[in-house]
Amino acid sequence: MLGIRLKVPTSSEWIKVVLNDFPSFLNDHAACERKASATGLNFVVQYPDRTELIEPMIQIAREELLHFQQVYTLLKKQGLQLSSDERTPYVNKLLSLIRTGRDQRFLDRLLTFGIIEARGAERFGIVAENISDPELKVFYQKLTQSEKQHHEFFLKMALKYFSTDEVELRLDELLTAEAEIMKELPLRAAVQ
Ligand SMILES: [Fe+2]
Ligand SMILES: [Fe+2]
Fold this sequence. Notes:
By secondary structure, the protein is mostly helical. Helices cover 73% and strands 0% of the residues. The protein has helices at residues 14-20, 22-46, 54-77, 89-95, 102-130, 134-161, 164-184.
């Protein structure tokens, strides 16, 4: 079956950077969840005629908002505050690949956000495996499962509105570009 299979795994050095500065990671993670929730709602606002995605996108927005709340609770417990917003270089570079034209843009947005979810799921899994705090371990295990379903959903939506050939071709191009972006960007104590 067609799936979003990342072309390069995360470097084994990344988790060391994260565990060295977990507060920064947690802060970035909170921002990612909040933005993912907003993305779900943006799809609803921008594509009201694509009725098959409305309810699942509202559901995704709710799940991401719940994740945001959960991460915020973890931050608070550690005596940390939310920090101000910044777009990460990874997301900026990926979003710059989105083409213009209503249909092309729609397809690229679905696939790009699917790839962002897939990378998130991979990395939350790495955190779950390597973190020693039992509460955080369970939290990141559950999150990994949830984010996996999200990337599968974005791909499913793409296949609902576009042919398999078109989706496969564009997904492959975007995954190749994502692998290049991954290789060139420095490792950060952040989700990406
Ligand atoms: Fe999430
Ligand atoms: Fe997600």
